[in-house]
Design goal:
Chain lengths: 204, 316
């Protein structure tokens, strides 16, 4: 009997085998979520535009926001030279000499992410920033060293890239004197008048 | 929570996405960002205060100084440094994730804008990743928050998915970031100049690995890598948009970033961040679910065992 009645039952529907999903709710109201989705899409479009088209959004997007969109243009061109930045001190008497600025810029002191390199990379043509840099380096140097300086020279070194496939020595920081004059480019130098004035007014 | 069988969630653009993708990013992206910041945070007084060199305010905002933020006192800089580390670690662990990820995002935005000299791609992208985590349900699973919730309400089942935008944002961002970068490279002469990568191997970013490769790999090898990189970046929407091609795109992307990280010293943190985003966004799902669930089971079991032994000890 039992078997018979079971037979007469309508065939069971095939059981759903797919696992249940539970969607974690996103924070915020639906309207806020929509606004976030639009903001996200606009951000992606801005990242793409800034990377592909160069900086074209500066007129319409506020600078602080645009700053976060400028992430998609890494190493776009070949390097023409290996560029380093250096400093020389101008003493009250005698010739300029190289100052190792690494102790005054301890963050990434040995590579081009140093604040000194970055300052010159961005502001090498900006007089106000270079004067501030001069004041900072000179002050830091004169507090440490007995032989004071009255001015600074900031320069870049443009070492040629070795031919592809050629052998070359491993990178290492070489003294400024090891670079020929034609590889040096002076971006800032304190005038001799300013050096003399500073040397004359400094306490002995 | 919204419940339903997975069968009802077709693989369309706006279907719910597996939560593992989001949680993988939440777990590891803050660590890559903190790794990048670590070398700066240890000298925070040279970064955010007038102890170090400070670029003077400029009359007009430009790409070098989008917003002038004056230096802060040394004690406050140390507070910012500690708060950044703690909020980043808490976001990674998923502890009070809503608050800590919001705090982490705010601090990262401040650090990126405070000083252009220390702002790199990780500073900017990291801020956006932290904001995206803050605006998502990150921490709903595989987190301290989830563990605490599970202890309080053991009958609740953990979420398996998140709304599409929380994952699609990272996926689309990667695809279009690569595409934009690829177009910039195309315009910058990558197709015509065979020595672009070679030319970048000689700066202070050079590592022992870079030098080894530059000394042993023939020049044509770097040219080939250059063209493959260009093809990967320009084709990114296709590599990652077409399901069958996704493993190829993922493998090349991971290999490319691993090579960049090994060859360009400090760029390693950028590479790790990109690898986390790539893997979280596009790895085959079992590659994410298995390790996450195994680690979660281990953590929760040992946590349960510890609390059981603690309560036993307390009882006497």
């Amino acid at each position: 009997m039992a078997r018979k009645s079971r037979r007469s039952e309508p065939p069971k529907k095939k059981k759903e085998t797919a696992p249940e999903i539970e969607v974690a709710p996103s924070p915020g109201s639906p309207l806020l979520r929509l606004a976030l989705a639009i903001a996200g899409a606009l951000y992606i479009a801005a990242v793409f535009t800034e990377g592909a088209g160069g900086s074209r959004l500066a007129r319409v997007v506020p600078r602080p926001l645009l700053f976060f969109c400028q992430i998609a243009s890494l190493f776009p061109r070949a390097a023409t030279h290996r560029i380093e930045y250096r400093a020389q001190g101008l003493p009250c008497a005698g010739p300029a000499f190289e100052i190792d600025v690494r102790p005054f810029f301890p963050i990434h002191a040995d590579d081009k992410e140093s604040r000194f390199d970055r300052a010159l990379h961005f502001y090498r043509k900006d007089r106000a920033t270079l004067e501030a840099l001069e004041a900072y380096v000179m002050d830091a140097y004169n507090r440490r060293e007995p032989d004071k300086v009255g001015g600074m020279v900031f320069l870049s070194l443009r070492a040629p890239i070795p031919d592809s496939g050629s052998t070359f020595p491993r990178y290492g920081r070489a003294p400024l004197s090891g670079f020929p004059t034609e590889q040096r480019h002076v971006w800032y130098a304190t005038s001799r008048d300013d050096v003399n004035r500073r040397c004359g007014t400094r306490d002995p | 929570m919204i419940r339903g069988p997975a069968a009802r969630a077709p693989s369309v653009f706006n279907a719910p996405q597996p939560i593992e993708r989001l949680e993988f990013v939440r777990l590891l992206a803050p660590l890559a960002i903190l790794g990048f910041l670590s070398s700066r945070l240890v000298h925070v007084e040279h970064w955010l205060t007038s102890v170090g060199f400070v670029v003077p305010p400029r009359p007009f905002a430009d790409y070098r100084q989008p917003l002038y933020i004056p230096p802060i006192p040394v004690w406050l800089a140390f507070v910012v440094a500690v708060a950044t580390v703690l909020s980043g670690l808490a976001t990674s662990l998923g502890y009070r994730t809503r608050w800590t990820s919001g705090m982490f995002a705010t601090l990262l935005a401040y650090l990126a804008l405070a000083d252009r000299l220390e702002a790199f791609t990780v500073s900017k992208l990291g801020t956006v990743v932290a904001i995206a985590l803050f605006a998502s349900p990150a921490g709903a699973r595989f987190s301290v928050d989830a563990w605490l919730r599970c202890r309080q309400k053991p009958e609740t089942s953990p979420p398996t998915h998140v709304h599409w935008g929380n994952v699609r944002f990272f996926q689309a961002l990667l695809a279009f970031m690569y595409l934009g970068s690829g177009i910039a490279k195309w315009k910058g002469g990558w197709p015509s100049d065979p020595n672009v990568i070679w030319s970048h191997l000689h700066s202070s970013y050079q590592t022992a690995f870079t030098y080894f490769l530059a000394s042993t790999v023939p020049a044509a090898g770097f040219t080939l890598f250059q063209h493959l990189t260009l093809a990967f970046e320009i084709g990114a929407p296709i590599w990652f948009g077409v399901r069958r091609l996704r493993p190829v795109g993922l493998a090349f992307g991971l290999a490319m970033h691993a090579a960049i990280g090994l060859m360009f010293g400090p760029v390693v943190w950028f590479s790790l961040l990109m690898m986390v985003l790539l893997f979280g966004s596009f790895a085959p799902l079992p590659w994410l679910t298995r390790p996450l669930r195994a680690a979660w089971t281990k953590v929760t079991e040992s946590g349960a065992a510890n609390s059981a032994s603690l309560s036993k000890a307390a009882r006497g």
